[in-house]
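Sample intake sheet
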Amino acid sequence: MPQARATDEIFVYAHEGAELRDFLALVERFNRRASNPTRWRPVVTTADDSLARLVEERRGDVVVLAGRNGGKARTIRRLHESGFHVLADKPWLVEPADLEHVRASLESWPLAAEIMTGRHDVAAGLVKKLVGAAALFGAFRDDGPAIEQESVHHLQKLVDGAPLRRPWWYFDVRVQGSGPVDIPTHLVDQAQWLVDGDTTAPVLLSARAWPTPVPAETFQRITGESGFPRELEPFVDGDTLSYRCNAELVYQIGRVTARAATRWNLSPSPGGGDASHSVARGTRADVRLEQSARTDHRRRVFVEPRTDVGRALRETVRAWQAELPGVDVVPAGPETFEVT
């Protein structure tokens, strides 16, 4: 079946200012990179009420929404009710009142979807298939968290080889959202995906959030601001900003207990980067997805048997050859296999 392709022309609606200029500079870097350059052609419209202009002019059918998260749920609902499909970055929920708007946007067509879901990632898809193979994985264990997901991120980072500029409001949890509603959005979604067929709503067992101290000097490097804006004064003590961006959630989906934890550091170690580790614990084997220095910062999938499932693993993966040409199983240490 022929696949539709999005046009290279993109219509950008925004307020004039530094954030728009930074976005256009980022697009240009992607267009000029040596490896696999993009071909985006931005057509920019600036207006005091850019959302109203977008709805009025309707130059496309899909809106990609990113940026300030405070008020995003209301914007998604307005676009949805105006007949647009919406792909929006997380978080959607910044304050309790946002929930009503999110529910209204999800209850009917057109589509409103989170833009960065990992459900289409190849490695995550392998984990999903391995967990779904009962002869290999068994059932989720019940002697502790059967799904554990941890990730480490960095406030200072490179995107396409250049330092990422973050706006000052990124450090205002009233605008950006706090730790529990940010990265855990993806982690909880992944856990629900793995617990396939269980339509029970997650039940929160415990939650905690804590800050990362951000010195004024680091804040200036990340944002380009000369100092902390007045709006951030409630979070500043002396020359340090308290950024409540870290979180841990423990919850249940049916009988399966899951734990999600995210942490933000100031900057990675030399040669380092963001890292993530997740494990699904089964009665026959554990399935682990890791991206860290140990995996050369590549997403790699490992199976750690609890019983003699080596043959079942090889037969299971061999059966996927038609769907996933080249997929294979290789030893990766004592009692560990890697699915490549």
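Comment: The chain has ten helices and 17 strands. The radius of gyration is 22 Å.
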